[in-house]
């Protein structure tokens, strides 16, 4: 029982940490010139790293907003889980926790999809996706599975 | 108490530095404009001396790609002179009021080649030591949306909806408990017979009401 609890919490926290790293580190695209998105573009010059704020296009701002929302919802879901853990009746389900976590995973998914579809418009052909982008795609199924587990789980004792 | 204040002010005035003789020039940091529009670049200065008759303003322009700057507008000796040979020919107008320490210019019909840095240098004899101030001009075809406007709007709307849903949920519960609303249970006579006489406490999602009630 305790192992199950710890496992669930670990999964949730892992998804949350991945979301944080994916949102904060600005490496959704990497190329020879440097890295760019979500927040700033850095180019490696003869003088070292030169960073300036990312392009103020509409779609990049949507991706920023959606990633931040996913972090907020996942965090709220974690708080709700601990809250419900102590106040739920026996046999009750963690619906609200699961709902928030599933919403968070949907936000990450939509953010990653929007970035995939729209980024060829502003990123040169030779650049590849960076690790922040990959982490976002990894965080999506983790959060989804975590949310589904919450919905299925029943409180005992 | 008052004596202490008076002494302190005298001491502070005594050790305060002499007003420096440097003139401080103020312009904007960066300006955005649309192609084809006009823009007013403002330049004011602060000086410890009154505005003299020989006050002068000089505007210089340095294109983004270039290293040297050219002079495009000058006010001196009571007269304003503007570019009559260079890239800003007939497009610059001196609109400032030097008596009011204002040395602004207007540039008309902007083009992409006007991207660059404009420097304003003002001199108010005997105050001539000062650092010229730069303003960067960026010319766009369409004005881009400021960074973060859409981000903040989306986050605000979603969180606002969340708060709204929570408020409505608690409002509905409150109203149903006060029997202002009647639940659909009342319309089913069999069930109403069961619930008759008992305080109705609706629980659409098990466990959340107590959890949220404790949390909020």
UniProtKB/TrEMBL annotation, chain A:
Pfam families recorded: PMP22_Claudin
Entries under PROSITE patterns matching the protein: PMP22_1 (PS01221), PMP22_2 (PS01222)
Membrane-spanning residues: 62-82, 94-118, 130-153
Compartment list: Membrane
Membrane topology term: Multi-pass membrane protein
Signal peptide location: 1-26
Keywords: Membrane, Signal, Transmembrane, Transmembrane helix
Gene Ontology annotations for the cellular component aspect, listed alphabetically: plasma membrane
Main subcellular location of this protein, as a coarse class: membrane
InterPro entries associated with the record: PMP-22/EMP/MP20-like, PMP22/EMP/MP20/Claudin, PMP22_EMP_MP20
Family according to the record: Belongs to the PMP-22/EMP/MP20 family.
UniProt-recorded name of the protein: Peroxisomal membrane protein pmp22
Gene (UniProt): PMP22
TrEMBL record, chain B:
Source superkingdom: Eukaryota
Keywords noted in UniProt: Disulfide bond, Glycoprotein, Immunoglobulin domain, Membrane, Signal, Transmembrane, Transmembrane helix
GO biological process: myelination
Annotated transmembrane regions: 145-171
Signal peptide range: 1-22
Protein topology in the membrane: Single-pass type I membrane protein
Record GO cellular component, one term: plasma membrane
Domain Ig-like residues, every copy: 19-136
Gene3D superfamilies: Immunoglobulins
Pfam short name (any one): V-set
Localization of this protein: Membrane
Protein family per UniProt: Belongs to the myelin P0 protein family.
Protein's name according to its UniProt entry: Ig-like domain-containing protein
Species assigned in the record: Crenichthys baileyi (White River springfish)
């Amino acid at each position: 029982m305790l192992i199950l609890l710890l496992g669930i919490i670990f999964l949730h926290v892992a998804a949350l940490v991945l979301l944080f790293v994916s949102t904060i580190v600005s490496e959704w695209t990497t190329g020879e010139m440097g890295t760019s998105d979500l927040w700033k573009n850095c180019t490696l010059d003869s003088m070292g790293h030169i960073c300036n704020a990312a392009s103020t296009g509409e779609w990049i701002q949507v991706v920023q907003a959606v990633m931040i929302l996913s972090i907020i919802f996942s965090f709220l879901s974690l708080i709700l889980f601990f809250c419900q853990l102590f106040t739920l009746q026996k046999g009750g389900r963690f619906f609200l926790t699961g709902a928030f976590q599933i919403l968070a995973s949907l936000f990450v998914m939509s953010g990653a999809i929007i970035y995939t579809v729209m980024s060829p418009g502003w990123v040169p052909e030779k650049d590849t996706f960076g690790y922040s982008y990959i982490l976002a795609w990894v965080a999506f199924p983790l959060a989804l599975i975590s949310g589904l587990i919450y919905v299925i789980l029943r409180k005992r004792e | 108490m008052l004596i202490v204040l008076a002494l302190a002010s005298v001491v502070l005035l005594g050790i305060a530095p002499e007003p420096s003789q440097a003139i401080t020039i103020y312009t904007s940091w960066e300006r955005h404009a649309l192609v084809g529009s006009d823009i007013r670049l403002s330049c004011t200065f602060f000086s410890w001396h009154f505005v003299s008759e020989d006050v002068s303003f000089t505007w210089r322009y340095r294109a983004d790609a270039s290293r040297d700057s050219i002079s495009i507008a000058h006010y001196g000796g009571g007269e304003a002179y503007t570019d009559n040979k260079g890239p800003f020919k007939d497009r610059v107008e001196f609109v400032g009021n030097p008596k009011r320490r204002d040395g602004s210019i207007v540039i008309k019909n902007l083009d992409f080649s006007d991207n660059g840095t404009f420097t304003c240098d003002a001199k108010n004899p005997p105050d001539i030591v000062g650092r010229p101030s730069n303003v960067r001009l960026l010319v766009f075809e369409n004005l881009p949306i400021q960074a973060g406007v859409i981000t903040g709007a989306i986050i605000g709307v979603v969180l606002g909806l969340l708060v709204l849903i929570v408020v409505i949920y608690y409002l509905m519960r409150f109203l149903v408990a006060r029997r202002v609303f009647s639940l659909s249970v009342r319309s089913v006579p069999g069930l109403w017979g069961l619930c008759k006489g008992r305080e109705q406490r609706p629980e659409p999602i098990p466990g959340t009401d107590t959890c949220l009630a404790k949390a909020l």
